[in-house]
Amino acid sequence: MKAKSKKWLYWIAAGIIVLGAIWYFFIKEEQVNIQLETVQPEMGEISNSITATGTVQPVDTVAVGTQVSGIIKNIYVDFNSTVKKGQLLATLDPDLLQFQTEQINANLQNAKSNLAYNEINFNRQSQLYKVGAISKADYDVAQNQINVARAQVNSVNAQLSTANKNLSLTNIYSPIDGTVLNRNVSEGQTVASSFSTPTLFSIAKDLTKMQIRASVDEADIGNVKVGQKATFTVDAFPNETFNGSVSEVRLQPTVSSNVVNYTTMINADNSSLKLKPGMTANITIYTEVLDNIMKIPASATSFKPDSLVIKKYKTNPPLANGKKGKKGKGSEQIKEKADTENESSVWVIGKDSIVTRKRIKTGMDNDTEIQVVSGLNKSDNIITGYKSLSKKSSGGSAKSPFMPQRRNTGNKSSGSGGGGPR
Predict the structure, then answer these.
(1) By residue range, what is the domain housing residue 93?
(2) Comparing C-alpha atoms, which of 267, 270, 266, 280 is closest to residue 224?
(3) CA distances from 45 to 285, 346, 384 (A)
(4) What's 228's domain CATH number?
(5) What is the 3-state secondary structure (H, E, C) of 288-302?
(6) Which long-range contacts link 289-292 to residues 24+ away (Cβ below 8 Å)?
(7) pLDDT, tens only, 363-400
(8) Which pLDDT does position 410 carry in this prediction?
(9) Is residue 6 in a domain?
């Protein structure tokens, strides 16, 4: 009998221990401490911007070609060569054109000789016609022959001028001061000038000034204006930001995969010569910029005190703790004064640890920062959210002997109700 009594005592003691552990680990309420996250309004710049991609290219590029056909005899410049206006770049073999010039010159001498003969014949026929030795028809024939001879001389003269011009075109000169970007021919290569002029060299006028050919989406192009500030980066210098300005918004759209884009030209300084033609630029165009204004984080306007904040701090106007709570005067005021356009509200904490609601007038909003027109002071501590630290009343991070250890939630941001940082 005594053995059975002891056995029941053991079972009762074990049950008490199990119930105590369940209460301790699962039923007992946690003590939650919260730490408000605050910021103060700051003065600075706020802006709206759009992003685009584009290609770096020289402001002015000239394609140097040839108007005559022939074999490249000599090339005097190469890639990256710096050239001056009028500098000889290359020559074509002039022999064939030289021969044509000599042949046409011989034809000219023949035409001049024929003209001289017809002039003598016309003078003789004119004298005979005056004394009535020949008919009017013979006189007209002599006059026509001299006119034909003169026209022949003029025609051959024009052919000779053309031949001399073509001969001079065998020398290829630079039309501008600049840098040779591309050389498309080699010595000994034959070039044929027909309907399209072949490009021998590409010359950039001034590589210290570049432009970016940006492709801007149709949804953003309405806010882009000439003169707006732009910044961009290139993959070659990912940690360096280059500055520029919008110089032109072209009205000709381009369509790719049913997406409409507009070409926007951006001028940029390249005194350091770091930018190379053809680089891909990641561009930010600032469509609206305000300087020296008061601004706060956008997360400040989305913070609303929840039950954890109300439990620890006094609020002004007073808020009820809980979903239903008491309908006090403060609650009615919040309902009546709903936020309108260009108007919002933030919560600030004072030195007396009272959380106060302030209504503010807002301006520009770029989804990250908001301009404050009025309603705040520079010294206000604006609440943007809070961090909660949860632990058992014993103060230790105890582990349940019956359940697997839960993941650590000791330092976590509050949810949407607490207005934690987003």
Answers:
(1) 61-199
(2) 266
(3) 15, 21, 20
(4) 2.40.30.170
(5) EEEEEEEEEEHHHHH
(6) 289/45, 289/46, 289/47, 289/229, 290/45, 290/46, 290/47, 290/363, 290/364, 290/371, 291/45, 292/43, 292/44, 292/45
(7) 998 889 999 999 998 889 999 998 877 554 434 343 43
(8) 37
(9) no
